[in-house]
Design a protein that fits this description.
Elements (H helix, E strand, L loop, with lengths): L1 E2 L13 H9 L5 H5 L3 H8 L3 H13 L1 E2 L5 H7 L5 E2 L4 H6 L4 E2 L2 E6 L6 H11 L12 E6 L6 H10 L4 H6 L1 E5 L3 H17 L4 E7 L3 H6 L6 H22 L2 E6 L1 E3 L9 E3 L2 H7 L2 E7 L4 E8 L7 E7 L2 E4 L2
Parallel strand pairs: 5-9, 5-12, 6-7, 6-8, 8-9
Antiparallel strand pairs: 1-2, 3-4, 10-11, 12-13, 13-14, 14-15
Helix pairs in contact: 3-4, 7-8, 10-12, 12-13
């Protein structure tokens, strides 16, 4: 959707300088954000009556050009998507070129299945030139479990003959201490991109469900947890699509008691996480120290799997 030229927020009926300032402080700084807002939100934020709020929202909707596009135009637009190498050619082939921007890639598996190792490797590789499997961008690394290890990233960078100090300087680590803090960080990342003009091309969330799982215990809190989680996932997807960056999330697992035969390992978070993730990958331990990655869900990748290994230098192919 596109805004009609020369139409500003202050041109909306009932929106003066003071009201516009309140809206912008709350993140409603475009016609699009106002058009999709609810009247209740507008009343609370701007301090206007419900009738005025509806008039503001309806006017914003009328001033928007819906902007339908053909399949050919969408295909052309998707050529701008970057793909970040995992370090393994087999893994990259599985993902049709690597972890893509403009999407959420979820990797789940039991402890020790190399989810965090892959996050570290992507944090290095995203900084490479595009012709070498990178996206020439910076990283925001949200650590919820205290597993971020700069010394490991330094080791991976040196294995590729890169300046490890420069690599580490381009990674913004932040420790999330609860689910609210974790959600707040996403809005702060957007501020870094908009205000500080940082070329962030990768956001790592390691791991997604740690705080949600510990704070919301029992069936009585499940509905509240899933609503909150749903908003968090859509905020991540919005960030990925608005700024053409890759979101890589790791997820915990549980043993599904309903599965009597085969692998009972199931990702936590339910259908909320499953539907919001663009690509879902299950990783598990293989033979002789290898790891197996299998595509569980993707809009364009067929169900398939590959084998890779974790070496001292990082994620690599199995010889």
């Amino acid at each position: 959707m596109a805004e009609k030229k020369d139409f500003k927020i202050t041109d909306l009926p009932g929106v003066g300088a003071a009201t516009a300032e309140k809206l912008e402080e709350a993140g409603f700084n475009t016609l699009m954000s106002i058009a999709v807002a609810s009247p209740a939100d507008m009343v609370e934020i701007a301090g206007v009556t419900e009738a005025t709020a509806r008039k503001i929202i309806n006017t914003a909707r009328n001033k928007l050009d819906v902007g339908f596009q053909t399949g050919t135009e969408l295909l052309e637009k998707r050529k701008n998507i970057d793909r970040i190498s995992t370090g393994s050619k087999a893994f990259d082939a599985l993902l049709m070129g690597g972890v893509e921007t403009n999407a959420i890639t979820e990797v789940y598996g039991e402890f020790g299945s190399s989810k965090t190792q892959l996050g570290h490797q992507l944090a290095v590789n995203v900084q490479l030139p595009k012709e070498q499997g990178g996206a020439e961008g910076m990283v925001c690394y949200i650590d919820t479990e205290g597993t971020g290890r700069p010394e490991r990233i330094k080791q991976m960078a040196e294995a590729l003959n890169l300046d490890s100090i420069k690599i580490l300087d381009n990674i913004k680590f932040i420790r999330a201490f609860n689910s609210d803090h974790q959600m707040l960080i996403i809005s702060k990342i957007e501020e870094l991109i908009k205000n500080d003009k940082l070329p962030i091309k990768l956001v790592v969330v390691d791991s997604l469900m740690s705080h949600f799982r510990s704070e919301f215990v029992g069936r009585g809190t499940l509905s509240e947890r899933q609503q909150k989680l749903n908003k968090h996932m859509h905020d991540l997807l919005k960030l990925a699509e608005n700024y053409n960056l890759a979101v890589y999330i790791t997820n915990q697992v549980m043993a599904n008691p309903a599965i009597f035969f085969g692998d009972p390992t199931t990702a936590v978070g339910g259908n909320i996480v499953a539907h919001a993730s663009s690509i879902r990958i299950y990783v598990r331990k293989g033979k002789k120290g290898t790891r197996v990655a299998r595509v569980i869900d993707s809009p364009n990748i067929p169900d398939s799997e590959c084998v890779f290994k974790v070496t001292e230098g990082g994620i690599r192919d199995v010889e």
